[in-house]
Amino acid sequence: MHSTILGRFATSRSRALHCPHALSHKRLISFSDLQTQQQPQRAVSPSTTITPPQPSSPDRQRPLIALGIETSCDDTCAAIVTSDRRILSEVLRTQHHLHEPMGGIVPKLAHHAHMRNLPEVVREAINKANLGERGIQEIDLVAVTRGPGLAHCLGVGLNAAKTLAAALNRPLVGVHHMEAHALTARLTTRDPKFKYDTQQGESSDLELLGPDPYPSFPFLTLLVSGGHTLLLITHSVDRYTTLASTVDDSIGEAFDKTARELDIPWLPGRAGGPGASLEEFAKGSKCPDRYLDQLPIPMSLRMNKREMKFSFAGLKSAVTRIVNQEKKSSPVAMMDEEKRKDLAAGFQHCAITHLCQKVEQALADCHKNGLQISSLVISGGVGRNATLRSKMEQICQKYDYAASSPVKESKVKKGFSGEATAVPLNSPSLSVDTMKPRQTIQVICPPPKLCTDNAVMIAWTGLERYQLGLVDPYDIDIVPKWPLDMLGTGIVPE
């Protein structure tokens, strides 16, 4: 890993709307010196003057309520979420029936479907939330995906959110789609240190999950979706450092195109699509190693093994070559189902192994350079993959971190927060006494239905940003291409 992978960090943009909080972070320049540096803050548009949201009754304090809207790709979504981590409603309209015949997402079809679906989706979300006599007036802020995504699709959601926020005289929060994926786990995960009331039975989406969002900062985030493959350090809301990204295709795109190459029908529903269909199809393989000698594990050669990059184009091309060879050798110019299942299993093995190698390298580098992390969060559509989750748990069991009691300074380097950094469990430098207060790094995955694009994560991220004073004016525009580590710098790509 290069010594400068943490990148620069500028003073965090703070657009407070009647909020007492204002964040100012500093991003690390390198692992080697752990030095910080501030850069001049770029001017941003002034915030719109808005009357602060009021509870329905002046003598009753209640949690904040956010309406979230998501239209970045092919699903039209709206949800209402509270700051005490309750999902009051969620509505989603998929477009699989439009895009499956075309073999992939068609932006123009998605755009027109959003225009047809969004008004009814928002209305249904508001009605299902049972907001009481004041109805929509109970909503305290409107959060919407601003980017990245398909330009015309983003515009449908952003224009609707601006109109709603202006009509209600409420704050508008433009959300980075990938930050929302990264923070979803803080809505859905129980804090292991919190004692829950077991007498009430199993929890539901409507119950309070803990006193504070969990996992605690900082943590590693692996975002794997149709448009992105990113490995990040999530320092806090609005503050991220990219450790690795793809140099060509995303893993989700590779899954989708491989499923199309193998003629695998899409699974229906919100947890469906080509990627999920490939995983299910591969389960039927009787000889999963049939094609492994013909399928490369990306970035695993000596010359590039240490590079923190993802690449799936070569693996995808190898699948195409095998399919063409099998068709040529077949008297009916088709690949039989058994071999297709074996090839799907081999592709999945190589793709997941590639992800695991880079995550394990990041964990080792974090330890080597004194970087404290608490957990690994996996999100995005491919984050639903059960094999991926299982392999990542095996990797993280090799590492632990100091959760409470400090360890001796002579034994372990200190991280930014003063706590001990993540250390391999088999490290010879740790004594038995040092190991006692440590906890294994946890793999955290949001529920499968919240790994794909959804408005719940947008509403929750809007709440987290709003409570830190990160609010946007009504004249913001979409940002189809938007690196996540640009958040907090005050700079938005044109």
From TrEMBL:
Residues 87-191, 216-404 form the Gcp-like domain. It is an enzyme of class 2 (transferase). The keyword RNA-binding does not apply. GO terms for cellular component: mitochondrion. It catalyses: L-threonylcarbamoyladenylate + adenosine(37) in tRNA = N(6)-L-threonylcarbamoyladenosine(37) in tRNA + AMP + H(+). It holds the Pfam family TsaD. Its cofactor is a divalent metal cation. Its EC number is 2.3.1.234. SUPFAM superfamilies: Actin-like ATPase domain (SSF53067). GO terms for biological process: mitochondrial tRNA threonylcarbamoyladenosine modification. It is found in: Mitochondrion. Keywords: Acyltransferase, Metal-binding, Mitochondrion, Transferase, tRNA processing. InterPro entries: ATPase_NBD, Gcp-like_dom, KAE1/TsaD, Peptidase_M22_CS, TsaD. GO terms for molecular function: metal ion binding; tRNA N(6)-L-threonylcarbamoyladenine synthase activity. Residues 34-44 have a biased composition (Polar residues). Binds 1 divalent metal cation per subunit. PROSITE patterns: GLYCOPROTEASE. Homodimer. PANTHER family: TRNA N6-ADENOSINE THREONYLCARBAMOYLTRANSFERASE, TRNA N6-ADENOSINE THREONYLCARBAMOYLTRANSFERASE, MITOCHONDRIAL. Belongs to the KAE1 / TsaD family. HAMAP family: TsaD. This is N(6)-L-threonylcarbamoyladenine synthase. The lineage of its organism: Eukaryota, Fungi, Fungi incertae sedis, Mucoromycota, Mortierellomycotina.
